[in-house]
Amino acid sequence: MHADQTIDVDGFSNNLDAICRTDLAAIFVCCGTGEFHALSLDEYRTLVMTARDVIAGRKPLLAGVGMGPAQALEFAATAQQLDAGGVLALPPYLITPDPAGLEDYYRQLAESLEISVILYHRANAVLTAATLERLSSVEKVIAVKDGIGDIETLRRHIVTFGDRYGWMSGMPTVEMSFEAFYACGVRSYSSAIANFAPAAALASHEAVVSGNNDRCARMLREFIIPLCGIRDRRPGYAVSYVKAAMNLLGLAAGPVRPPLVELTPHEQQELAEILRANGLPARG
Question: Phi/psi of residue 116, each to 5°?
Fold first, then answer.
């Protein structure tokens, strides 16, 4: 965003191009950290189209969809028209749905598309084994992103459905918990810190996959736990601290949109010190 909260297309383009030059496997735009909830359809269209043009096939592109069924279908159709490879289906707005209703919501979305759908198991979108069993017949539903963190439930799902679904973790600042998810059978995750520290996100993943427990512990102690200390202070800081870190590193992020709130000046200074202590050239 610009300071007046209009979309900064040039800054977004530069950020995308930088990410494309890393070894990250795919790019998600307009999802949780991308403030999907705060975007108009026109803004969403601009961002997904920009992402398509900048990425230019260098990485798979996925876009967030959600809110009510009509909005989810409209945003998903837009993502498909703009050549996104798939969509991340965020939890439906406000309603705590019955499992049968949630199944209908996802089925309607997936059957309207020719591109793939990843289900986001988070908040009010609780995916039961029965729901996943019924949705397993929907070819376009390819994966589950877990943002609840119930290891027992997730382990049951993975054992039950195996490779019918791809499994990824989507916990806030996921590097904090990925060791547990990896042991559970999850092999990938979406990383918020990859927006400002892609090398650290990749190093953290590699440390877990290679079983380098000492490196995992060191990265948690020196970088991830201090970041989480800021993240946990106020609701919404899981997004706010990421954008603040980007700004401190000279990346175009700008402000968050209400109802999210900014880090205080003291917290921004604290964040800058954490970044610098981990080799990142934060300003301020």
Answer: -80, 155
- Give the Cα separation of 100 and 97 in Å (integer): 8
Q: From the CA atom positions of the chain, what is the Rg in Å? A: 18
Q: Using an 8 Å Cβ cutoff, are 33 and 90 in contact? A: no
Please give the single-letter amino acid code of residue 129.
A
- Tokens representing 148 are 């609840």
13-to-53, 239, 283 alpha-carbon distances in Å: 9, 19, 22
Q: Distance between CA 179 and CA 198 in Å, rounded?
A: 18
pTM of the model: 0.95
Domains in the chain: boundaries: 25-190, 198-284
What does the pLDDT read at residue 73? 98
Pairing of strands 166-169, 27-29: unpaired
Compute the distance between CA of residue 272 and CA of residue 276 in angstroms, rounded to an integer: 6
* CB neighbour burial string for 202-240, b if at least 16 within 10 angstroms, e if fewer: bbbbebbeeeeeeebeebbeebbebbbebbeebeebbbb
CB 80 within 8 A of CB 49: no
Amino acid in the structure at residue 156: R
**Residue 56: which residues within 8 A CB-CB, separation 6 or more?**
none
Query: What CATH number labels 25-190?
Result: 3.20.20.70
> From the CB of residue 121, how many other CB atoms can be counted at a distance below 10 Å?
24
Whose tokens are 């027992």? That residue is 152
pLDDT tens digit sequence for 5-40 = 999 999 999 999 999 999 999 999 999 999 999 999
Q: Do β-strands 86-89 and 27-29 pair in parallel, antiparallel, or remain unpaired?
A: unpaired
